[in-house]
User: Fold this.
Amino acid sequence: MTRSSLEETVLAGLRPSQEEKDHVCGIGQRILEKIRQSGKAEGMVVGSIARHTWVKGDRDLDVFMLFDPSLTREQLETEGLALARSIAAAFTDNYHEKYAEHPYINATIEDVDVDLVPCYKVESASRIQSAVDRTPFHTRYITDKINGLIDDVLLLKRFAKAGGIYGSDQMTEGFSGYLCELLVLHYGGFTPLLKAAAEWKPRTLIDVENHVAKEFNEPLVMIDPVDPKRNVAAAVSVDRMAEFVELARGYLESPSAAFFEMPVSCAITRSTLEDLLRDRGTKLYSLTFRTPPYIEEIVVPQLKRSTIGIAEHLERNGFSVHHAHYHMGLEECMILIELLVDDLPAIRSHAGPPVWNRVNAEKFRTKYLSADLPGPFISGGRYETEVPREFRHAGDLLRSEGMQQVSHGKHIRLAMENGWQVREGGDCWSPAFSAFIAVFFNRRSPLVRHAAGACLPER
Assistant:
């Protein structure tokens, strides 16, 4: 396939050198030998390193330990974790447990980040007993078919990373490495994919093996070639899909190196934030609390739910929310809210039932008859009255005990039971969240961001 000189130049910086390949793969082979010597499981390198689709410098080595499927889940976790720990200890002291569907060991061996993951050695992907059992089949499928298209995958991965849409994690809601590989395979290369993606619309369905076995509702559907009941693109949100469409159109119309360049990190100073708020005339509030001790896949969806719930709580009380977002830090989480107003009058209107709804109308009229404020009166055929506003200042609402009644996820609720801090204006700024705050006020689509040379959003 003929590539432009621009793409060849980009690829020269993406392909791992032979020395790097030998180094990383050599560590993988030594780990596999240790697993073999244990006699307890079969070792297999999976992921982009096994498929030769890894980008230079991305030294993430995934080693799966395939156990007999007759083991119970408890036995797999116990024996798998014990073997992973012993394998890691043979190479380094720098390792620790991590948790996904079940526990595994993450280790740093020399300069390579290694995951040692136990799974079942099943006969086919249709017989998986845990989600990770599918991964070896992914590796075999891509390895058998990817020859001749590896460079296209490298281009796509860097293109997606530079656009801020690479990664199926909960913060990004974007394109996984496996999805990138499948897209390149299906369309036959990087450029054919972009030409097709430029015309995508929600509910686009791609079924490489023509074996879809259920209906999916996500905006982009890529049927897993090894599992007809799974959508590989399930994590891709409609926004990330639209951003990919925009990037594809932009690159095809005017190719440039900017589409492959990782944006510089950005931050904002306190004084700049204060000037910005003064110019915008809006009101900024932050809620911070300790980060729950769980992985991002668990915490982030709950953070999103809490942010939506808090915004709705503010709106119900008359505070107009312009923008709200969230960020999970290592020590603390932050929910950031920009309001159009944060001070309201002492009164508000309170609508009652239609007058001809006799029973409820009488109850309403009697209840508010002795109030000091005007009303009840009739407007549009129903009773209405004025009542005192419970919260005149947004900060009072955000600090109130009623915040615990907002729709939170379990772990966010528990974290907030231990207290949360509410800050206003420039006091929302902190070094730990300066990059998050910067991009909160600098929202741009990927194509606009490329044109402006703006920083990448923190998901």
About this structure: The radius of gyration is 27 Å. The first helix runs from residue 5 to 12. The mean pLDDT is 93.
